[in-house]
Amino acid sequence: MRVDIALRGERLSRSFGQGAMQTIALDDVSLSIEAGELALLMGPSGSGKSTLLAVLSGLLRPDSGRVVSLGNDLWTLNETEREQFRLQYCGFIFQGYNLFSALTARQQIEMVVRWGEGASPREARRRADEVLSLLGMSRRAHLRPVELSGGEKQRVAIGRALVKNPRLVFADEPTSALDWSHGEQVIELLRAAAHDRGATVLIVSHDSRTIPFADHVYHLEDGRLQHQDESSVAVLNHQGQLLPYPTSR
Predict the structure, then answer these.
(1) Does the domain spanning 5-244 belong to CATH 3.40.50.300?
(2) Which of 85, 128, 180, 249 could bridge 109 with an S-S bond, Cβ 3.0-4.6 Å?
(3) What is the number of H-type helices and E-type strands within the chain?
(4) Pairing mode of beta strands 224-226, 216-221
(5) How far apart are the first and last CA of the chain?
(6) Cα 154 to Cα 95: distance, rounded to the nearest angstrom
């Protein structure tokens, strides 16, 4: 059966600083993620997870190696071409939310559809309201970021990433500011984007409750991908039950 690899990193390395102050964030990392797969990238703080996410998504140039994304050799594109690629195909969920202070929750999401896709104001509002409803934010749609809690801001950021049905979704700790009832809802939405709509979803997370939702789990430590015997590892699912380590489905 033909496997459709949507995102592939080949021998990626990235360091910061120079000389005695140099820190190696990525050390010869290679991985492949299939279309329609939700992949989870885990590891301790400082292990290089967010750096790898930035490199794979075209936000941070690696020192060496290549990224092939939807058939494009990403780091051979010029800056304008990469920006256009991200606009057309990628959805991002950042830890810092990156919301516009002057816009309401609804407007944050509408602008992606209006200016990114050229949709009419009516269509943009319909799609924004649909996503806000899925996220339990309909009654907060008129509020600006200063009036929202951290968890609510996170849900708006997630809605903004998903509203255009991107082919690639990059999520950095998407459940970190959420209680688990909302966190589970968000992970289910991300899994539906992968399994139902064929998106490729890469999530960076410390939250072990997200593991049972993943098709594949990568573990990064000291900038290197760790290969584990999956059959010998056990994890807790979101209901606290012991499960075997998940394998690709």
Answers:
(1) yes
(2) 128
(3) 6, 12
(4) antiparallel
(5) 14
(6) 8
Contact assessment for residue 136 and residue 154, using Cβ atoms and an 8 Å cutoff? no
Tokens standing for residue 186: 């968000």
Query: How far is 156 from 147, CA to CA, in rounded Å?
Result: 13
Locate all alpha helices (DSSP H) within the chain, ordered by sequence: 49-56, 79-89, 105-117, 121-134, 150-162, 180-195
CB 60 within 8 A of CB 51: yes
Residue with tokens 């809802």: 185
Overall residue count recorded for the chain in this entry: 249
- Render pLDDT for 58-75 as a digit per residue (tens, 0 to 9): 999 999 999 999 999 999
DSSP 167: S
User: Residues 166-187: what's their mean pLDDT?
Assistant: 88
Q: Could you give the dihedral angle defined by the CA atoms of residues 131, 135, 139 and 143, in that order, rounded to the nearest 10 degrees?
A: -80
Average pLDDT, the chain: 87
Output the CA–CA distances (angstroms, integers) from residue 67 to 6, 31, 53, 146, in the order listed.
Answer: 11, 10, 11, 37
Q: What phi, psi does 143 have (nearest 5°)? A: -95, 150
Comparing CA positions, the residue from 234, 240, 199, 194 lying closest to residue 214 is: 194
pLDDT at 238: 38
More confident residue, 210 or 239: 210
Buried b (16+ CB within 10 A) or exposed e, 81-111: ebeebbeebbbbbbeebebeeeebbbbbbbb
